[in-house]
Specification:
The chain contains eight helices and six strands; from the N terminus they run ααββααβαβαββαα. By secondary structure, the protein is of the alpha/beta class. It has one domain: 3-Layer(aba) Sandwich (Uracil-DNA Glycosylase, subunit E), CATH 3.40.470. It has a six-stranded mixed sheet with strand order 1-3-2-4-6-5. Helix 1 packs antiparallel against helix 5. The radius of gyration is 17 Å and the shape is globular. The two termini are about 25 Å apart.
Length: about 230
């Protein structure tokens, strides 16, 4: 894994963040009570840092850690069904060295890819409020300033809206804000970067077949095409 002092320093600051009392209390309560299935786990219970390659050109923007997923394991999309789908797709597309994500020390590495969330703490009912998202927006902006991002995949409506807000502030996007749609590609920064929309691989979407594996795989094939385009 490549070393990046700025990336590591940012992640340390994310983990130490205590700006949102409601979220910090909720995460710690969940870590204390645990779920019966994970009673032998030492829950993370802290803000979950970014994960991946600090030289990534592909950035995935999710929602927030799951209470018994990332909040338990301390790594984004690790230990829940959404992560099972995501890492399987990343592995098939060549963006990960393995298809499974179980815990922080399972050997998983991302290749030219990184993951962030608009909210780094697990929120009650999986719904951070506006103030909490605003408190976390600094981390998103600094993530974008460190990574040489060319393609951004926004997973779900909240990931999309948070991305559009950031790109508008950076002057990468102007005019009317595009509405979220699965498979939509929006050029950014005078066609130097691209935003791609995807349904979130949550059980709500995968169990109902709103999102299928072929649909999800196509998103990462599309990302690969635009990364190659950027290098042409």
């Amino acid at each position: 894994m490549k070393r990046s002092p700025k990336w590591n320093a940012l992640n340390r600051q994310i983990v130490a963040c205590d700006r949102c009392a409601r979220l910090r209390s909720y995460c710690q309560d969940v870590a204390s009570a645990k779920r019966a299935l994970y009673r032998d786990w030492d829950y993370w219970g802290l803000p979950v840092p970014n994960f991946g390659d600090p030289a990534a050109r592909l950035l995935l923007v999710g929602l927030a850690p799951a209470a018994h997923g990332g909040n338990r394991t301390g790594r984004a999309f690790t230990g829940d069904r959404s992560g099972d789908w995501l890492y399987r797709a990343l592995f098939k597309a060549g963006f990960a060295n393995q298809a499974e994500a179980v815990h922080r020390d399972d050997g998983l590495q991302l290749i030219d890819c990184a993951i962030t969330n608009p909210c780094h703490c697990a929120p009650p009912d999986n719904k951070p409020n506006g103030e909490e998202l605003q408190n976390c927006s600094e981390w998103f902006g600094r993530t974008l300033s460190i990574l040489p991002v060319k393609v951004i995949i926004a997973l779900g409506q909240l990931g999309w809206e948070s991305s559009v807000d950031q790109f508008t502030a950076l002057n990468w996007m102007s005019g009317r804000k595009p509405k979220f749609a699965h498979g939509l590609v929006v050029p950014l920064d005078d066609n130097r970067r691209w935003l791609i929309g995807s349904f979130h691989p949550s059980p709500r979407n995968t169990f109902t077949k709103k999102l299928t594996e072929p649909m999800f795989d196509e998103i990462f094939q599309l990302a690969r095409e635009y990364l190659d385009k950027g290098e042409a």
